[in-house]
Specification:
This protein has one domain: Sufe protein. Chain: A, CATH 3.90.1010. It is α+β, with helices and mostly antiparallel strands. The radius of gyration is 14 Å and the shape is elongated. The longest helix has 28 residues, at 101-128. A hairpin with a 2-residue loop joins strand 2 and strand 3 (47-56). Helix 2 (59-72) packs across helix 4. The protein has 5 helices and 3 strands. It has helices at 4-11, 59-72, 77-81, 85-92, 101-128; strands spanning 24-29, 36-44, 47-56. A 3-stranded antiparallel sheet has the order 1-2-3.
Amino acid sequence: MYNKHVLAIFQNPQNAGGMKGANGVGKVGGTSCSDVMKIYLLVEDGIIKEAHFKTFGSCAAIASTDVACELIKGKTLTEAENLTGADILQELGELPQNKIYTTILAEQAVKSAIEDYYKRLEKMQKDAE
């Protein structure tokens, strides 16, 4: 069902777990599917220094979120905003047709975390005035 690369990521995700000091957090899923993804970002000077995740869901969901975190580390926020589900799928190799949506969910989780970062930044700037 899953290729060896996807299974290896699922069995040993490099970015699993929450993050203290995250300054951007995004959460997606749960309404139309059973997968829920939460991505934590640490952004410094417009660069994503760290990205971690907590995902409740399938092997594909966990692997997709881990790959998404790996792909955005070291990127600018603009570069990370351009991440697509297709980029994640390309890194995974392939997924069963009924699990490809997990790559889109991971893309949405990244964008949600970036949006949260900008909201927090805006609030900090207003509070400083």
